[in-house]
Amino acid sequence: MTAPVLSPAELIDAMGTRARAAAGVLARLPSERRRAGLHGAAAAIRAARPAILAANARDVAAGEAAGLSAAMLDRLRLDEDRVSAIAAAVDQVAALDDPVGREIDRAVRPNGLALSRVRVPIGVIGIIYESRPNVTVDAAALCVMSGNATILRGGSEAAASNRALHAAFTDGLAAADLPAETVQLVPTTDRAVVGAMLMAAGMIDLIIPRGGKSLVARVQAEARVPVLAHLDGINHVYVDGAADPAMAEAVVRDAKMRRTGICGAMETLLIDRAYPAGAALVAALAATGCTLRGDAAAQALGVAEAADATDWDTEYLDAVAAVAVVDGLDGALAHIARHGSHHTDAIVTGDEDRAERFLAEVDSAIVLWNASTQFADGGEFGLGAEIGIATGRLHARGPVALEGLTTYKWLGRGTGQVRG
Amino acid sequence: MTAPVLSPAELIDAMGTRARAAAGVLARLPSERRRAGLHGAAAAIRAARPAILAANARDVAAGEAAGLSAAMLDRLRLDEDRVSAIAAAVDQVAALDDPVGREIDRAVRPNGLALSRVRVPIGVIGIIYESRPNVTVDAAALCVMSGNATILRGGSEAAASNRALHAAFTDGLAAADLPAETVQLVPTTDRAVVGAMLMAAGMIDLIIPRGGKSLVARVQAEARVPVLAHLDGINHVYVDGAADPAMAEAVVRDAKMRRTGICGAMETLLIDRAYPAGAALVAALAATGCTLRGDAAAQALGVAEAADATDWDTEYLDAVAAVAVVDGLDGALAHIARHGSHHTDAIVTGDEDRAERFLAEVDSAIVLWNASTQFADGGEFGLGAEIGIATGRLHARGPVALEGLTTYKWLGRGTGQVRG
């Protein structure tokens, strides 16, 4: 790769102009053409597997030489199965319901003007991500299916892998006669390009950051372009006094320990002071190998370590949980209102009134009754995929897939109506 | 009014904290309570009419002394009828369908988890506006009905009027037992407070600017909080070769001249080179007193003045229109793509295929066939009111009323489901 001859702002301006042109074409293509493009991309990825794996091996070797952590190397590493899975995911996206053109509502006004709201693509989506090369393909596929042009900016550790995946993906699109600029990959790892993307209001319609908290925080702090992101998943499970103990144990174990590194993992367990089986619940969670940090009442139930004030606001993403004993539903609601991050919270109870109050009053994107917080996932919600989980309050909230990548316009069909 | 003792950031922080608490209460009140609060506010405004008019007289006198333009004084001035109309508008908002709690969709997952998406208020809305005191009440009423707390920051010219209207409005809410901090008015005209509102991410969920282009541009440039706004309404009417001449004249006259100062007014007339009655159309529009500025071909049809390059990008908001002759539908689409502001554009034609292409391909919030652009209005669209017309692409687009002031959350009701 040669050094860029354009400034970061000029580069993004040029890419944005091409993306806008592609978006205009893409928005008018019928579903079948976008689906065909994606099937072409999936086939091209399968065909390019040797080149993709060779590029990935270079990234992994460079990462090992640079001393990347084992976790980062795992996120970076591809193998035959992972490349196959990446291609299969593209085929799956191509099979989803198309939101573009879907009518949201319609009405005929008293003057005879026939109005309808119809979903249309957003336009140009910028994706800023870190070391997982599969994001290159996953994000691009969702954007293509929803009729959007995409500008991808991946992490420098995965640069060769991303270029190989992007080359295959766009070859596949081109074979299906989709515009060449439908999916563009920023051709430099210069960090200033991220800043230029964040400032590109009017060129990029929406930025979606995919990565760790520091990336997302930087994007949210600097962007002049709208951002769809989640920052923290400080998720709670509240075990109510009326919870079934076996169900409580199963839900809490799954919410915390099924996978500890995902944003839907439980970080804080709230136990109703009136719950009779608190000590057994604590013991069951501790028996999974989870480190527990509790307040004094939780320690009295068997929690080994004392929590400090920061624990209630910490997203561990690890086999660690904070445990607090609260005074019933009101205590749980107050704790979540103070410490929650508006991502996913759950209540376990057999009392329907309390459950409905919890569902109504917890101000989070996802609120669950008698189910694990680890269901916070577009696939589990029936969306077929997800580009992220939004914890902001505007546009889309919770798991975001194709619908969240569209907007709408109002169409009015008249017979010469004037306001007069 | 005494000088504020808090810094602008401290003031907004304190107001935001109170607003968040009020929003939590408001979001859980049933429709009836919010409706009762609004009827109380309307009654209190009627009862306070003498005090409101006295306050307004002070603002008007100060404005005259300061040399405000006649147009600004007209926007500022209240009389008995205008106050009655303000109160009546609040009663009308109280009669609208309540979006809060409305189910968007639902599904039972294969594992039995019952999912639904339900509309909830956004939370805390900041309204930044200029000299029209009625915005104090109109905006507050829409926010209350949609379950949101509001922080209002009006123009300094209307400070006394806004205080009087706000005092009556909140007295009425309080009489119906709604939280005192449901609607707060910034108690200073210090411009730095606007800056503090724009930076108040996490305290204010959404900023809606209501006013002229310089206000909206400042808000969009500086805000760290999401903004719902429209900047320009550079709206086009394209008169196609297959247009009925009588309909074309009626639509164009209405779109331009019914009211020239509103954002839905036509600014540019595009005439198909193949349209046989172009000269008559130009003459009809000129006969209304509209100044016309055209390209060479439009001048050949009778347009008196030559347009320069800036005319195609100008929102006149006056009895002035740019006129261009274009090569059919493709020429019109290209002109709108280059110069439009994504607000409202219309085609007049008897050719359904061309009309449907125009509806599909023009990338604007509102696209109309055989109807005047002046229908761009929440009331005309059956929304019962509007807080503005959004020309951005995220969250809400076009006329925004109660639904646009809500977001949603996902509710899941299970029986102990775990992902395992």
Automatic annotation (TrEMBL), chains A, B:
<dbReference type="InterPro" id="IPR016163">
    <property type="entry name" value="Ald_DH_C"/>
</dbReference>
<comment type="similarity">
    <text>Belongs to the gamma-glutamyl phosphate reductase family.</text>
</comment>
<keyword id="KW-0963">Cytoplasm</keyword>
<dbReference type="InterPro" id="IPR000965">
    <property type="entry name" value="GPR_dom"/>
</dbReference>
<dbReference type="InterPro" id="IPR015590">
    <property type="entry name" value="Aldehyde_DH_dom"/>
</dbReference>
<comment type="pathway">
    <text>Amino-acid biosynthesis; L-proline biosynthesis; L-glutamate 5-semialdehyde from L-glutamate: step 2/2.</text>
</comment>
<dbReference type="Pfam" id="PF00171">
    <property type="entry name" value="Aldedh"/>
</dbReference>
<dbReference type="GO" id="GO:0050661">
    <property type="term" value="F:NADP binding"/>
</dbReference>
<dbReference type="InterPro" id="IPR016161">
    <property type="entry name" value="Ald_DH/histidinol_DH"/>
</dbReference>
<dbReference type="InterPro" id="IPR016162">
    <property type="entry name" value="Ald_DH_N"/>
</dbReference>
<keyword id="KW-0521">NADP</keyword>
<keyword id="KW-0028">Amino-acid biosynthesis</keyword>
<dbReference type="GO" id="GO:0005737">
    <property type="term" value="C:cytoplasm"/>
</dbReference>
<dbReference type="GO" id="GO:0055129">
    <property type="term" value="P:L-proline biosynthetic process"/>
</dbReference>
<protein>
    <recommendedName>
        <fullName>Gamma-glutamyl phosphate reductase</fullName>
        <ecNumber>1.2.1.41</ecNumber>
    </recommendedName>
</protein>
<dbReference type="InterPro" id="IPR020593">
    <property type="entry name" value="G-glutamylP_reductase_CS"/>
</dbReference>
<dbReference type="InterPro" id="IPR012134">
    <property type="entry name" value="Glu-5-SA_DH"/>
</dbReference>
<keyword id="KW-0641">Proline biosynthesis</keyword>
<dbReference type="GO" id="GO:0004350">
    <property type="term" value="F:glutamate-5-semialdehyde dehydrogenase activity"/>
</dbReference>
<feature type="domain" description="Aldehyde dehydrogenase">
    <location>
        <begin position="9"/>
        <end position="274"/>
    </location>
</feature>
<keyword id="KW-0560">Oxidoreductase</keyword>
<comment type="function">
    <text>Catalyzes the NADPH-dependent reduction of L-glutamate 5-phosphate into L-glutamate 5-semialdehyde and phosphate. The product spontaneously undergoes cyclization to form 1-pyrroline-5-carboxylate.</text>
</comment>
